[in-house]
Specification:
CATH class: Mainly Beta
Organism: Thermoleptolyngbya sichuanensis A183
Distance between the termini: 25 Å
Number of helices: 1
Protein name: Lipocalin-like domain-containing protein
Domain Lipocalin-like: 8-144
Pfam family, one: Lipocalin_5
Number of domains: 1
Shape: globular
Length: 146
C-alpha cells in the first residue's frame, strides 16, 4: 500500500523569509503580515497565491479586470508587485516538490518548473527555493488548514 501524499490539502501562509548568500535573514521579506493559500490535490494539481498583508486598496474599484486601465499606473504596479500567484501540476520526490507552472501572475514562469525543498513537521510545511551561492533564496512557511 502506498503512503498517502502528505501535501494534499490547503495551507495558510504563516511567514516568508529571505535568506541572503551571507546567511543573514530578512524575516519580513514580503512585509510583516503576508497572506496566502496553497492547495495540493490528490490528483496532482496545485495552486498558490500570496500577497503582502498590508496592500493598500486601489483608488478606483474596477467592475472587472478588463477595467483596470481606470486605475492609475503606479497603483497597478504596486498591486502587481505585492501579489504572486501560479497554478499547474506538481510532482513529489523525496524532500522536493516540483511545481510545473501552467499559468502565473509573472508571465515568465508559465511553462517552467519551480523546484522547492520541503520539510514537514506535523501541520507545518516549509518550502524553500534552492540555495544559490550568489543570490537570495526564499523560505515560505505554511500551516495546514483543517
Amino acid at each position: 500500500m502506498d503512503d498517502p501524499n502528505p501535501l494534499v490539502g490547503t495551507w495558510m501562509l504563516v511567514a516568508i523569509r529571505a535568506i541572503a548568500p551571507d546567511g543573514s535573514i530578512n524575516p519580513e521579506a514580503y512585509g510583516p503580515s503576508p497572506v496566502g493559500r496553497l492547495t495540493y490535490t490528490a490528483d496532482g494539481h496545485m495552486t498558490v497565491l500570496f500577497a503582502q498583508g498590508d496592500r493598500p486598496p486601489l483608488s478606483h474599484t474596477p467592475a472587472s479586470p478588463f477595467q483596470l486601465e481606470a486605475v492609475p499606473r503606479p497603483e497597478r504596479a504596486q498591486a502587481f508587485s505585492s501579489f504572486s500567484a501560479y497554478a499547474g501540476t506538481y510532482t513529489l520526490a523525496g524532500n522536493t516538490v516540483t511545481h510545473h507552472v501552467a499559468i502565473a501572475s509573472i508571465p515568465n514562469r508559465t511553462g517552467t518548473d519551480l523546484v522547492r525543498i520541503l520539510s514537514l513537521e506535523g501541520d507545518r510545511l516549509t518550502l524553500k527555493t534552492p540555495p544559490s551561492a550568489n543570490s537570495t533564496h526564499v523560505e515560505l512557511i505554511w500551516q495546514r488548514l483543517s
